[in-house]
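ugh ok fine here u go
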Amino acid sequence: MKSCECGCGAKFPRLDSRGRLRRFAPSHNGNPPRNPNNCPNHAGELLPCNRCVTYKKRRYCSLRAQNKCPNHPTETLPCSTCQDQHRAAYEALRLDVLSHYCNGKPSCQCRGCKISFIGFLCIDHVKGDGHKHLNQRGQRLKGPSLLKWLKRNDYPSGFQVLCANCNQSKKNQSTCALYGHHHK
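structure:
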């Protein structure tokens, strides 16, 4: 930590109570900054300040190398708090996407199938053209990345919700093998 060059005694980069970098720290002596785009820790630099960003990246990498969570430095990886937050966010996103494609309550869209247990449901490409949906690195979109892509692109058509059995059955055929027949 360095002291401020103006002699006010402020330390920078400023950290919050958890030891994370405070992006918008209060200015000297409680006065608001003249320009809100100026870095509160380094006079004359605009946000995002390169020194603060570099410090944050260095701190993140250092904590990861020590097997510590960057958001909760007192916890070792895998951090149960972060895992719970990610899991809850994923489940909420999954429920949102499945509900949209089912017009309400998620259930298998195969005619005759009555599966509505959300753990068995998955997103299916209606025309089987999943190989066309690639990310920026040329990898197929699946799992959380597919769900995020669907929501970000305002739920495009060409997708449906199927249970795992119907989806696997449809893999080698154009429809589910039991399409139209009652099956569980």
